[in-house]
Write a structure and sequence with these properties.
- This protein is an all-alpha fold.
- The protein has six helices and two strands; from the N terminus they run αααββααα.
- It has a domain of about 140 residues: Four Helix Bundle (Hemerythrin (Met), subunit A), CATH 1.20.120.
- It is about 50% helix and about 0% strand.
- Strands 1-2 form a two-stranded antiparallel ribbon.
- β1 and β2 form a beta hairpin.
- The model has no long low-confidence stretch (mean pLDDT about 95).
- This is Mycothiol-dependent maleylpyruvate isomerase metal-binding domain-containing protein.
- GO terms for molecular function: metal ion binding.
- InterPro entries: CHP03086, DinB/YfiT-like, Maleyloyr_isom, MDMPI_metal-binding.
Amino acid sequence: MNENTVSGWSLLDTAHEALRSTVRGITAADLDRPTPCSDWTVTQVLQHAAGDQLAFAASITGGPGPDFNPFAPSGTLDGEPSVLLEPALTACAAAWATVDHDAAEAPVPVPPGSLAPWLGAGAAALDAAVHAWDIAAATGQDSPLTLDLARELHKVATEIVEPLRQFGAYAAAIDAPGDEVADLLHYLGRDPAWKA
């Protein structure tokens, strides 16, 4: 399979394309820029995002996950950003393509370890899309989050994010008005107006 691999889960495919297109916009000068993830550079967010997508794939296939800790990314890349990202997106999409939409649950690398398939695919999508936004904000690119994408991801976020906050995966929600994109980012503890 290649970069055109699709999962059959439209939200996940849309989020993967958002991350893919944002990463294509990274230049060498961007790699060490700060991001909305306050302790991480663009490279570290990219490593984290790729590692998470591999973890979602491994949960389904039982195959190998990332060979590094996505929560302690090194900040050093071997090759172009897409060399790290594409295999992760391909593996995740291929794994989700095997999941029956009518199954009772699907394995995921986040608590509680399995979710309804739409929600599990949505969790992978949320992870990809929000990190696409982090990278876009850090590198001066347009937001990859459309109103429709943000609306769908917000439904997922309200189902899965609260238990993850205790592990530091998301900051506390910000209480502020906004459109669908701002509402999603606020819920995830991000400031839509953040600038590097």
